[in-house]
Specification:
With 221 residues, the chain is an alpha/beta fold. The protein has one domain: TIM Barrel. 27% of the residues lie in helices and 19% in strands. The protein has 6 helices and 8 strands. Strand 6, helix 4 and strand 7 form a beta-alpha-beta unit. The N and C termini lie close together (7 Å). It binds D-xylitol-5-phosphate (DX5) and zinc ion. D-xylitol-5-phosphate binds next to strand 2. The site of D-xylitol-5-phosphate (DX5) has 21 residues, from strand 2.
Amino acid sequence: MSGMLSPSLMCADLLNLQFDIETLDKAGAEYIHLDFMDGAFVPNITLDTTLIKKVKSVLVNMKRDIHIMAFHPEKYFESMNIGNGDIVSVHYEACDNLNDVICKIKSRGASAFVAVSPDTSAEVLSSFIDKIDGVLVMTVYPGFAGQPLAEGSMEKIAQVREMIDKSRRNLILEVDGHVSWDLCGEMVRNGADLLVAGSSSVFSGENSLEESVKRMKSLIS
Ligand code: DX5
Ligand code: ZN
């Protein structure tokens, strides 16, 4: 079982974003992870909608993997130019009417993922599993890079894998938070398909970005 890679742009060199994006794309990352925060659902702000929209124009092979940590995520779909090929993750904890938000993502031709924070039980996903294209398991508390792995994360990945397999639907299981060199292999063995690589792996600064993508890919293939 081999995993796909989604390096997290909030961990990149903010003064050289285009260079970093093009390097990751050439090196073979499948997705670019784009975190959007509203300062209310999470106590932080990161990439803005204009930047998230603009990233689309420089991608060659990579696709956008947009993680919206915000209340009323649908307010931002138009300004991010969400459409075909995009993954859009919205938080279970942030949506009053998740079914409606899922429909809005799909009506734009994008893939609808539901994200669950560490303290949210995987069981909440059972009501949505027939309607979504993937699950984003947060293995740190949303809002900041560089945190330790949340307790119970490995078990939760395995639990969500089992739910997906039982549903007999071809959902993608994405993992975001402390996806380190040491843990990425175990995450894939536990059932992860798509790994968000941040400050504990691809952007750790130990290797060049190109070498980091190759190193990560060899660990998860
Ligand atoms: C955190 C973000 C992550 C972040 C992860 O809220 O959703 O995408 O980049 O960073 P690391 O990999 O450092 O935990
Ligand atoms: Zn994220």
